[in-house]
Amino acid sequence: MAYRIVITDDDPLNLKAATHILTQNGFMVDCLRSGEELLEYVDKIKPDLILLDIHMVGMDGFETIKRLHARSTSESVPVIFLTADDEEDTEAKALSLGATDFVKKPFVSSILLLRVRNSIELFRLQRHLMDEVRKKTEEVVKEHERNERLSLQVVQTIAGAIDAKDKYTNGHSLRVAQYSREIARRAGYSKRAQNEIYMMGLLHDVGKIGIGDDIINKPSRLTVEEYDIIKTHPMVGFGILKNITELPMLAIGARWHHERYDGSGYPDGLKGNDIPEEARLIAVADAYDAMSSCRTYHESYDKEFVKNEFLKGRGVQFDPYFTDIMIEMISEDLRYNVEESLDRNEFEKLVIKRESSPEETLLSVLSAGGVDPKTGMRYCMNDTDFYTEMLTDFVDGAPQREQALMDFFSPLDTEGYRINSHSLKSASRTIGALELSKTAEQMENAARVNDTAFIYDNHYKLINDLGRTTGIIRTALALIAGGEDNPVTTNKDDE
User: Fold this and answer.
1) Are 202 and 173 in contact (CB under 8 A)?
2) How does pLDDT run across 51-83, given as a tens digit for each residue?
3) Phi and psi dihedrals of 49, rounded to 5?
4) Which residues make Cβ contacts (< 8 Å) with residue 387, sequence separation at least 6?
5) CA spacing 20 to 30 A to 397: which of 193, 433, 462, 467?
6) How high is the pLDDT of residue 463?
7) What would the DSSP string read from start to end of 227-273?
8) Burial class (CB in 10 A: 0-12, 13-18, 19+), 454
9) Tens digit of each residue's pLDDT (9 = 90 or more) over 237-261
10) Is the bond preceding 47 in cis, omega lying within 30 degrees of 0?
11) What CA–CA distance (Å, rounded) separates 61 from 353?
12) Is the pTM of this model over 0.90?
């Protein structure tokens, strides 16, 4: 293959001499008279090597190489300077600007050919090695990312199995993980540390896998003996997770998330900063989800009640710093899943009376909460049983939808975010959650045109709307499932 050399020199004799030597030895040569001509040339043609005179009328060689390297089209072309100077400062400056070699004028043919060939071959070898290194690095990164995704999927599967033991709080571990990661983000944790906190949150209750379903799902007050059994789950979880030596931090959240800042918690009675920081953080997230979610032993509490509970527990049950972050999150209504859009008086009536038929109760609660059951029923062929199934599937899939949106939000991947917003828009419309569908559509459109400012400003509104809608539907489904023989109880305290 004939290599293409471009020579830039304002002296015609130098051009002629270099051209003769190179063409006689099989090179293709283009001759230019100025730095300006060279810059125009490389925008159209990429040579294998540039021979560049230092001292030229107009733009000199130093300025020319600076501008060459500022162009993406020419940054990977080696440059040999042509000079009659003997000063070391000239060579030092040229090398600092990125020259690969020098050739003295007047030319000695053997030296010119040797340096041209060596520069081209060396540069090609370097490029090849860089490409190989880049390829191997990409392979290692992809394998590492694949292993991380696999680890996360395994952890999420285990967390799902744990949560499934308590049919009324399904999704608890995922929500605690999400809240924990948001607290960590606001506390200034690195991205890696945030992901570790997330994994710890997913598995904080893994020890409950050893607790009987009859205790986990008991709707009434636990006996002393049953509560003692519940209190064993941190150590059971620690025993399971401490053997995962590749992820040693997982065991921390499992063992110490029920310690209290004043030292009255369990299993070890640790106090203050003796409690591992990650466990103190997860404890706040865990308590928040316990209060803001429906349980077998209580309905979800409103925002002000939850804030006051954290204020009372600040420095007593909870780490003050992480408590302040959580109060800030609640004040901003950030991802708050209590069904505040559901009229509380109407809710109380429905919970206490429950005199309507299950179908009427379902539709009334949905309507009161802002979900349009007429639209949902229409899309579900006016089949109440099928509509109920669709609502149940929406609730069950909500944690995964939220997680997908969070994953594509940080760091922001607009295409992935657009796809998941589009999916949420369609699913929400199908069940009659029209306001949620409208918000999701706005986010989809913003992602389509790469309006990152709109996405950043409204992401948590979308997450919050999804959580609130899910809470409304969950409440409606629980009411029609419970009937009059399943009164609300508030006397179990295992969280």
Assistant:
1) yes
2) 999 888 889 999 999 998 887 655 678 999 988
3) -160, 150
4) 373, 376, 377, 380, 431
5) 193
6) 87
7) HHHHTTHHHHHHHHHTT-TTSTTHHHHHHHTT--TTS--SSS---GG
8) middle
9) 898 888 777 778 889 999 999 999 9
10) no
11) 90
12) no
For residue 6, what is the enclosing H or E element?
Answer: strand 4-8
Q: Which two tokens stand for residue 52?
A: 């560049």
Q: Are strands 28-32 and 101-104 parallel, antiparallel or unpaired?
A: unpaired
452 has pLDDT over 80: yes
Strand 79-83 vs strand 101-104: parallel, antiparallel, or unpaired?
Answer: parallel
- Going by the DSSP 8-state scheme, the letter that residue 436 receives in this structure is H
E strand or H helix at 456, and its extent? helix 452-482
Name the residue among 186, 217, 182 with its Cα closest to residue 201: 182
Task: Please name the residues in contact with 183: beta carbons below 8 A apart, sequence gap of 6 or more.
Answer: 197, 281, 284, 285, 322, 325, 326, 329
User: SS3 of 1, please?
Assistant: coil
Token digits of residue 96: 């600092």
**Cα angle 389, 393, 282; round to 5:** 140
The CA distance from 371 to 486, in Å, is 24
Amino acid present at 347:
F
**DSSP summary character for residue 356:** S
Q: Which residues contact 77 (CB under 8 A, 6 or more apart)?
A: 42, 46, 47, 48, 49, 50, 68
pLDDT at residue 339, as a whole number: 37
Q: Report the candidate in 132, 105, 101 with the shortest Cα–Cα distance to residue 17.
A: 105
Q: CB count, 10 Å around CB of 133?
A: 10
- Could you tell me the two tokens for 415? 């295409």
Which SS3 state, helix, strand or coil, does residue 5 take? strand
Distance CA 179, CA 290 (A): 12
pLDDT, tens digit, for every residue of 256-314?
Answer: 999 999 999 999 999 999 999 999 999 999 999 888 775 544 455 677 888 899 999 99
Cβ distance 239 to 252 under 8 Å? no
Exposure pattern of 296-315 as b/e (b: 16+ CB <10 Å)?
A: bbbbbbeeeebbebbeebbe
State both tokens at 440: 């999701």
Q: Return the biggest CA–CA distance within the chain.
A: 106
Determine the 3-state secondary structure of 300 from DSSP.
Answer: coil
Q: What's the gap between Cα 130 and its chain centre?
A: 30
For the segment 203-220, the average pLDDT, to the nearest whole number, is 80
Tokens of 354: 């429950």
Query: What residues form DSSP beta bridges with 7?
Result: 31, 51
Q: Which two tokens stand for residue 368?
A: 């009161």
| Token couple for 351 | 């919970």
The pLDDT value given to residue 11: 86
